[in-house]
Specification:
4 helices; mainly alpha
Length: about 90
């Protein structure tokens, strides 16, 4: 039964901008609720150290990709050289 009341309240908030404003106003009047909302939002905000750690991780990924590309190019060059060498031997027999 309580689930349906909650659903009705959520539907009313989603449908009606006036109800949404009233709910927001009621929530921010209480300083404890306001502080809880601010703390919840702050937890989701990236800090400078988060961004620096992400940049460092991106740098590591870029270096690994560069290394893999060089390895693949080297492998392809070795394969091409081997194929060309074999073809040249067959052609000039």
């Amino acid at each position: 039964m309580s689930g349906s009341v909650v659903d009705e309240v959520i539907d009313a908030v989603e449908r009606n901008p006036t109800v949404r404003r009233r709910l927001a106003s009621a929530l921010v009047i209480d300083s404890d609720v306001r502080l809880a909302i601010i703390n919840a939002v702050i937890r989701d905000v990236a800090t400078k150290s988060d961004i620096e750690a992400l940049r460092s991780e991106i740098g590591n990924v870029n270096r690994r990709i560069d290394s893999l590309i060089k390895w693949i190019i080297g492998l392809m060059a070795a394969m091409w050289t081997s194929i060309m060498g074999t073809l040249l031997v067959l052609i000039f027999r």
